[in-house]
User: Which sequence fits this backbone?
């Protein structure tokens, strides 16, 4: 039967199944293949907090969504065009997002009485007509892989576990993707167990061939390569990009990298990744707790390393007191907060932007810290690099905010040219020129104090958490000195504004509405802005990378718009800072659901406002 | 650490004395510890810039300000963790932690045990005055049960830590105890810490004459000292008393005090072996135990690879195996493709 190719600009596909069904792996494989093919893309992994909730339960559903496109895109997409549901629970959780007429591919064999009951279905939805308004493809995947793996020396359980590769094969056929990269990947992953390579490869092929020969599909889709700027690309998640950014900063500045931290979702991958790079001389230290994580980093900074700690909200809370020490000691330090849903343990695997206030104000005393927020997975590289550079140049702790969505999401990333990265160096103090050394004497331009590291002759000195006397760094309880130093610390942070380039405004530079965003909300807001501009609305989109200090031209930008909309995944944080700083009547969009905004939601909020 | 020794010009106590006025109460035991440290360090023949003192918060933690070395007076309880970062960043440094019984065993107890467990090559000096000095006299985790202080007007209800037992339990490779008033012994213990390769834990009984005066007089005053202290010496029988008339003997596996005379001879007395963990644990159990003398000296000392040393080995091994990491290959790792 001849199958037509239908051309599409963009497709959103969502893989959903039980946590044991390998949906993250399936989604990642589709992502990597599409990236290699040349599409632009964005992903949204969404997994439960439990490692293995009971099989077949609603709590155990794990999903992975990606949008791939022949155009420049910014989000993992709003509604899926294709939903793969590997069991009734996955169908139950995700069907509401599938628009009528959408493609629905299910593993029919998983729709057993037991699983249906577990998911809360009275009747089998595959049989009762309730799915009639979708393009349903009900495939006996478990049975198919049983056939394809016949003769292999594998337990039935292991055979059944290849069904995600069958589903992947069907999708590869549907979107005309090559199987080769995945087969290579299987060989690498299961190299020591050839029977697993064979079984999964057979399942993958079986899925592909099923699409080709079964009489049920009538159409295939073509999504052409995207017109991305020329260059060499790879696919990166935000956490990986953060690690590369840190390593790049260390290499470029020739300052050894030290990482002290304690495992926490969704920041642990930073520790995992850096720990694998020992041959770069990178030192990682899994400390006994979060406090020891940052404390060891402060010690390493004192001793002359580019010191980093990373965590998520609860861990950052524990680090609060030590952050204050880094502020008063004026040592370079990078603190990464991969934000997740809070308060308390909150939603460990879900994304949120609710730690901005914590980053701004979560310390005792007047303890300002510069804050940079990454805007896309790939931008985590640049944000981490910049955070490191500012920390070293200005001798200050810098907080880098990312979030679960950026950290685990991925996008094609144009590999930067090493030479194009701005250089910086430690400029360790070498000697005291015969005078007595003044640990708190400052550089006129940056207000940074000298970095005199242990081991350097004649620069022996003491620092600490007690208020420092200006210039000498001796302990001082003098009231006037304390005021001077408080102002100095505030000015030192404010002074970093020099480094921040003018803020680009996308769309109109003045008009009815400005959408103002920070962090991971960038993508949805930019897509929304594109839509609104297509509708000939007079709007602009302005995105902040540095949140503290705020860019010097922001005030002038704000007054050029009649309305300001600030979408953020919290109950109103940047909005309060903007209102306080610029006395403007900004409006918020504050849906706190543990997931990124869809572009449609921001479009809607914008239209309501204007 | 001994192998790291570097030649330096002859130093004196003055080289280790900073220009900052010392602010402890007159008569505080901390003065003696500072003085002996400043006297001992010049004997190491090490360059001054290689020493780093890290402290937490407490009276004792003011110590780094008075030593003319690199120093960092940090936050309450975290000195051990901060010191770990210093040592890992630059293993060539000789890193010393000064901490109090509250700082190191209460708020920072977790970091202290983990530092010892890892055998990080850092020297911990625990100034134990069995009280919170800086906050003006609350009981501490080493105060005796029933102690009456401002925060325990009817007597404390918690049983105290036994620091050497805690250190042994945490697998420290060097556990010792000394007294602020025993200048020569204090010096020799500081030297032993310096010489030990790997982490060291030295508990120093320190008199707080303001809030806990006389806590250790039994072990320091003339009339009680001889029969109350067991001076430990490796390879020597465990004897004490003004005339060394008492000894420690094992009765089965139970220690007991014996009097040398008709019944017992010096041959019956246990001989100290610093490498014997069981012996060390037994000695630790004598702490504040009225049936036994207080063990002072090196309880335990064994060699084991240190964390910092193993980290460097791992880096060297990985570099040899995978080649020195290049930024370009890191950026270009994984599947890549080119857009024309
Ligand atoms: C986070 C924090 N909690 C409490 C304190 C108050 N504080 C300072 S020192 C101290 C106890 C000090 O006792 P110890 O460590 O035994 O030192 P000492 O003064 O006896 O030498 C306390 C509770 C503090 N500085 N920081
Ligand atoms: S309070 Fe006690 S420990 Fe503190 S300085 Fe005074 S005497 Fe020393
Ligand atoms: Mg104390």
Assistant:
């Amino acid at each position: 039967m001849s199958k037509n190719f239908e051309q599409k600009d963009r497709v959103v596909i969502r893989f959903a199944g039980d946590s044991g069904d390998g949906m993250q792996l399936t989604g990642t494989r589709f992502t990597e293949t599409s990236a290699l093919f040349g599409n632009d893309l964005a992903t949204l992994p969404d997994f439960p907090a439990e490692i293995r909730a009971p099989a077949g339960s609603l709590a155990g559903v794990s999903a992975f969504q990606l949008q791939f496109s022949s155009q420049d895109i910014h989000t993992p997409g709003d509604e899926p065009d294709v939903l793969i549901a590997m069991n009734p629970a996955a169908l139950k959780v995700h069907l509401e997002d599938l628009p009528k007429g959408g493609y629905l591919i299910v593993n029919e064999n998983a729709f057993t009485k037991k699983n249906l009951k577990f998911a809360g279905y009275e009747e089998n939805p595959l049989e009762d007509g309730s799915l009639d308004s979708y393009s349903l493809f009900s495939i006996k995947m478990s049975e198919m892989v049983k056939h394809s793996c016949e003769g292999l020396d594998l337990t039935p359980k292991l055979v059944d576990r290849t069904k995600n590769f069958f589903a992947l094969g069907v999708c590869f056929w549907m979107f005309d993707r090559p199987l080769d990269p995945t087969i290579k990947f299987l060989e690498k992953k299961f190299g020591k167990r050839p029977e697993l390579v064979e079984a999964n490869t057979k399942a993958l092929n079986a899925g592909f061939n099923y699409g080709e020969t079964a009489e049920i599909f009538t159409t295939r889709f073509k999504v052409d390569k995207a017109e991305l700027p020329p260059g060499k690309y790879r696919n990166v998640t935000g956490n990986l990009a953060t690690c590369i950014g840190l390593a790049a900063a260390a290499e470029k500045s020739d300052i050894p990298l030290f990482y002290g931290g304690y495992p926490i979702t969704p920041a642990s991958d930073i520790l995992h990744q850096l720990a694998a790079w020992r041959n770069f001389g990178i030192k990682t230290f899994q400390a006994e707790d979060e406090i020891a994580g940052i404390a060891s980093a402060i010690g390493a900074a004192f001793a002359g390393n580019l010191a980093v700690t990373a965590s998520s909200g609860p861990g950052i809370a524990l680090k609060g007191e030590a952050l204050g020490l880094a502020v008063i000691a004026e040592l370079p330090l990078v603190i990464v907060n991969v934000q997740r849903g809070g308060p308390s343990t909150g939603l460990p695997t879900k994304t949120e932007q609710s730690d901005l206030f914590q980053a701004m104000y979560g310390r005792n005393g007047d303890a300002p810290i510069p804050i940079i927020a990454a805007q896309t997975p790939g931008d985590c590289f640049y944000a981490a690099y910049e955070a490191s550079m500012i920390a070293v140049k200005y001798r200050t702790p810098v907080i880098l905010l990312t979030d679960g969505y950026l950290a685990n999401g991925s996008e094609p990333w144009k590999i930067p040219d090493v030479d194009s990265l701005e250089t910086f160096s430690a400029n360790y103090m070498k000697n005291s020129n015969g005078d007595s050394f003044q640990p708190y004497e400052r550089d006129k331009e940056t207000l940074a104090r000298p970095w005199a590291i242990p081991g350097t002759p004649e620069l022996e000195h003491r620092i600490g958490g007690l208020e420092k006397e200006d210039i000498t760094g001796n302990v001082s309880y003098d009231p006037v000195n304390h005021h001077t130093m408080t102002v100095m610390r505030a000015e030192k942070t404010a002074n970093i504004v020099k480094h921040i380039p003018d803020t680009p405004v996308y769309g109109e530079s003045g008009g009815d509405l400005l959408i103002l965003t920070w962090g991971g909300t960038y993508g949805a807001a930019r897509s929304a802005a594109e839509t609104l501009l297509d509708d000939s609305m007079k709007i602009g989109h302005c995105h902040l990378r540095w949140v503290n200090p705020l860019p010097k031209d922001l005030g002038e930008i704000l007054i050029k718009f009649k309305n300001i909309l600030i979408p953020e995944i919290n109950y109103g944080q940047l909005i309060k800072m903007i209102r306080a700083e610029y006395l403007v009547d900004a409006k918020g969009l504050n849906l706190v659901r543990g997931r990124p905004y869809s572009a449609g939601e921001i479009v809607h909020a914008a239209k309501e406002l204007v | 650490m001994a192998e790291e020794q570097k030649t330096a010009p002859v130093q004196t106590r003055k080289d280790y004395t900073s220009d900052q006025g010392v602010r402890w109460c007159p008569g505080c035991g901390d003065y003696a510890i500072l003085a002996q440290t400043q006297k001992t360090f010049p004997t190491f023949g090490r360059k001054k810039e290689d020493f780093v003192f890290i402290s937490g918060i407490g009276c004792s933690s003011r110590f780094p300000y008075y030593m003319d070395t690199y120093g960092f007076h940090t936050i309450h309880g975290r000195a051990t963790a901060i010191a770990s970062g210093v040592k890992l960043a630059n293993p060539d440094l000789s890193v010393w932690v000064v901490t109090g019984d509250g700082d190191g065993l209460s708020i920072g107890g977790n970091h202290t045990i983990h530092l010892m467990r890892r055998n990080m090559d850092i020297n911990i000096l625990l100034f134990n005055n069995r009280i919170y000095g800086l906050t003006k006299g609350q009981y501490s985790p080493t105060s005796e049960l029933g102690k009456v202080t401002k925060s325990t007007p009817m007597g404390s209800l918690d049983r105290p830590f036994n620091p050497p037992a805690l250190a042994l339990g945490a697998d420290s490779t060097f556990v010792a105890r000394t007294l602020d008033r025993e200048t020569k012994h204090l010096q020799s213990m500081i030297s032993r810490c310096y010489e030990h390769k790997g982490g060291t834990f030295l508990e120093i009984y320190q008199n707080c004459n303001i809030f806990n005066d006389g806590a250790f007089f039994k072990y320091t005053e003339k009339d009680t000292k001889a029969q109350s202290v067991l001076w430990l010496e490796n390879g020597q029988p465990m004897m004490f008393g003004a005339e060394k008339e008492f000894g420690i003997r094992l009765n089965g596996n139970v220690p007991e005090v014996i009097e040398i005379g008709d019944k017992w001879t010096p041959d019956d007395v246990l001989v100290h072996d610093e490498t014997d963990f069981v012996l060390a644990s037994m000695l630790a159990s004598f702490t504040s135990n009225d049936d036994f003398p207080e063990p002072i000296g090196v309880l335990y000392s064994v060699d084991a690879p240190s964390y910092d040393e193993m980290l460097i080995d791992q880096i060297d091994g990985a570099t040899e195996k995978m080649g020195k990491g290049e930024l370009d290959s890191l950026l270009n790792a994984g599947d890549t493709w080119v857009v024309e």
